[in-house]
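User: Working on a comparison across species. This one is MFS transporter from Methanosuratincola subterraneus. Can you predict its structure so I can line it up against the others?
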Amino acid sequence: MPILKSFGRSLVQGARVVASQKSMSLYGVLSIASVYQIVTFHSFISNLIGYGYSLAFLSALFLTSIISMFLGAIFRQKIQKKVHLAWNLLGVLFASLIFFRLEGILGLIVYSVLGGVTAGLCIPDVICHLLEITNFENRGAVSGIYLFSIYLLIIISSTVISSAFDLALFLLVLKAISILLISFRPIKKADVEEPAFVRHPLRVPLLYMFVWFIFLLVDVIVSNMALQRLTPNEIYWINLESVTLGLSAMIIGGAIADNVGRRKLIIFAYLYLGIEYSFISLSSGDLIRYTFIDGVAWGLLSTLFLLVIWGDVGSIRARPLYTATALTIGVASIYFKNIIPLFGLRYDLNQAFPLTSIFLFLSVVITSFLLPETLPDKIIQSKELRDYIETAKKIREKYT
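Assistant: Here's the predicted structure for MFS transporter from Methanosuratincola subterraneus:
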């Protein structure tokens, strides 16, 4: 089928782009994977600091990482190879100090500051570099492959990290490889917009941010509901199944986004979630075990809202701030997932799922009527024309 060939062609193009920049692509994968592990396994470090410091460390770590991301975004043009080397060396220092078990206020300050800077400072530059090696025709496929690689590494590493010392060893290995990769490759920044780039009014990226925020808000609410009804072991397997589904959605969704557009995929993902949560609500929560299937929507929306959209709507100078803001929303959602149980906040099932339905419906309305398609029409039309020509050739060959 021509459309399947088109998707396959997009994946091949995306793989070629990633392969052509394999050193920097691997550097980006390792950098972002290390960030995820720091914010996910924060409890191992807070246990080193001592009893009673969990909330303080969690808050300080997340705040420092967010501040670092915005500083990195604002001063992105000044971030060159030396800054990346220093950033990775800070990561080595942070991981090394875990072995020394700093306790009390000293541990709180040192681990939160070094961990936050390690998790934030150069990440906007890493993501913007990826966006600069893509264009409108291959950005979805490249982003899908990129995120697939990151989360595959995260899944593999998560199976072996069971203590603070495992985390430290993992970070040391990633940072050592990252230093080698960045030492022998110059970091080039684009200074010319791609020809197809169209400037959008500020309301467009802001509304896309709002739609992304709604998805993560719904995710926080549903995660809290799952904590009330499922055991930790069940939640672990649901998360693993969800991420596994999400990996496939990243690869496939990225290619689809390059052919049919970004907006249709966003609308599909929100409708998919709305239908799923409607069934869970009608079952009085009995089907909450099946929330792993929202991994499909998670994979699609993560690819679009962490990478693709900001490459489409952001100019070279605006992209760092857009990516930092999108990442901040993601980091904030992880933070609230962790602190809500600490305060014993609980949602009633009869309130939570109708509320999520309203949020998802609002997202569909905003995306359908207030947001433009960010993939230029001429690119969509050219791919449709190419598919049409291929179909016509096959029909002619069949009857001649």
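For your comparison, note: The chain has one domain: 2-189+200-394.

User: Helpful, thanks.
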